[in-house]
Design brief:
Elements (H helix, E strand, L loop, with lengths): L26 E4 L1 E2 L18 E2 L2 H22 L8 H10 L4 H11 L4 E5 L8 H14 L5 E6 L1 H6 L2 H10 L1 E9 L3 H6 L6 H14 L2 E8 L3 H19 L3 E6 L9 H6 L7 H14 L4 E4 L12 E3 L3 H12 L3 H12 L12 H14 L8 H10 L1
Parallel strand pairs: 1-4, 4-5, 5-6, 6-7, 7-8, 8-9
Antiparallel strand pairs: 2-3, 9-10
Helix pairs in contact: 1-2, 1-3, 1-4, 2-3, 4-6, 6-8, 8-9, 9-11, 11-12, 13-14
Iron/sulfur cluster binds next to loops.
């Protein structure tokens, strides 16, 4: 991002590093720094970073700075060249934003200025009156906003009273993203998630009852070879009990920076292959009997087309998995490598002869001419995505 043509006293404020993919065009507003739990053994997001609450004054100052930048862009839009089009003025800022804050605000305005994502890992950990105060100020200062979302731990939601969650919803919070990961108590303990399946259900049900829309994230592969069945069946049990609005799938990605890495190295945790994870995904979907939108909005997932509305699209989703499983072992490898090398987005891409040849060449190279790529290389490709 260029800063060459911009004065050094340009407006700025603090941004966190993460947001869900579904919040790509949202205004980012940091309520807390990092994660108050920070112990999950599969997660590297905030490791080494100290958790801190931010004060209401600090956050409200940031909201005022957003308003200032919005007003600057509105003033730019009022010049004849933009004919009062905020979108066009925002596009100009996006071409050469002076910093990430301007980029975020301009992108947010370009997309209609409606959505906000509250950072970092667990905004609900703020005291309820303070969170309500921030939300109220945010909506009053930026009145175009109609959707405010945040990450949250299930345990924190379980500890809030239903009346508190309702007050937070009334103040403007519309959706929470909770990392369920698994509904198996064995798996939850092994990954040090710091929550039980009973607490996951309690927290999730309370969020749903409060009127806040709920996204629950399922972590495909976190049971490994040993616990994948229990992981899938128990997660379906928990998700059925909660009935969240969205079930979102993520695929486990491990690397040497994770707390669970020694388990991978010494063989205590054995990673499932893509084929095994498709069997796990099938078992999960077969056992789901709630009403929810099933979403696969992450590029780390092998079959992103396994999406739909439950229960009506269940068979359609299972049919995609069956189609993959019916491929010959060679074709499954072509798809897996093509997907991990970012050539393929869906099974239909296998029909493109040009792309097929390119992926075959990649397999030839990666396998050293044997035609069979080592599973560790496939894991590495998956984890690099
Ligand atoms: S609660 Fe979320 S952000 Fe915190 S360590 Fe666990 S997975 Fe990572």
């Amino acid at each position: 991002m260029s800063t060459e043509n911009h004065p050094s006293n340009i407006a700025s404020y603090e941004l966190g590093a993460y947001r869900p993919p579904s919040e790509a065009y949202s205004l980012l507003l940091r309520l807390t720094r990092n994660c108050p739990w920070n112990r999950c053994r599969f997660c590297e997001m905030y490791k080494g970073q100290k958790f801190e609450l931010r004060s209401v004054e600090e956050v409200n100052r940031d909201i005022l700075t957003v308003a200032q930048i919005r007003d600057e862009i509105a003033a730019l839009a009022s010049s004849p060249i933009y004919a009062n089009s905020i979108r066009k003025a925002a596009a100009t800022i996006l071409n050469d934003p002076p910093n990430y804050v301007y980029q975020n605000v301009a992108l947010w305005l370009y997309k209609g200025g409606q959505n906000v994502f509250l950072q970092d890992a667990n905004s609900l950990v703020m005291r309820t009156p303070e969170l309500v105060e921030v939300l109220t100020f945010l909506k009053a200062t930026l009145p175009t906003i109609n959707r405010i979302t945040s990450y949250c731990r299930a345990k924190t939601a379980a500890l809030k009273k239903l009346e508190e969650l309702k007050a937070i919803h009334e103040a403007g919070l519309t959706r929470l993203h909770i990392g369920l990961e698994s509904g198996s108590d064995t798996v939850l303990k092994l990954i040090d998630k710091g929550v039980t399946s009973a607490e996951e259900i309690e927290g999730g049900k309370k969020v749903v009852a409060s009127g806040i829309s709920l996204s629950e994230y399922y972590l495909l592969g976190i049971g490994g070879k040993a616990l994948w069945r229990e992981h899938a069946v128990e997660s379906a049990r928990v998700l059925n009990a909660i009935a969240p609005d969205f079930i979102r799938v993520r695929t486990l990605s491990v690397n040497e920076r994770l707390l669970m890495w020694p388990d991978v190295e010494n063989g205590t945790f054995v990673r499932a292959t893509d084929e095994e994870m498709m069997e796990e995904l099938k078992l999960l979907i077969q056992n789901l009997d709630c009403h929810a939108n099933f979403v696969s909005d992450h590029m780390g997932n092998l079959l992103q087309e396994v999406e739909g509305k439950l229960p009506e699209d269940k068979e359609k989703m299972l049919a995609v998995i069956a189609r993959f499983q019916a491929l010959s072992p060679q074709e499954r490898q072509v798809y897996r490598i093509g997907r991990r090398a970012r050539y393929y987005t869906s099974l239909d891409d296998l029909k493109d002869p040009g792309q097929h040849r390119v992926v075959e060449q990649i397999i030839e190279r990666l396998s050293g001419g044997t035609g069979q790529v080592d599973e560790r290389i496939v894991c590495k490709m998956r984890e690099n995505m």
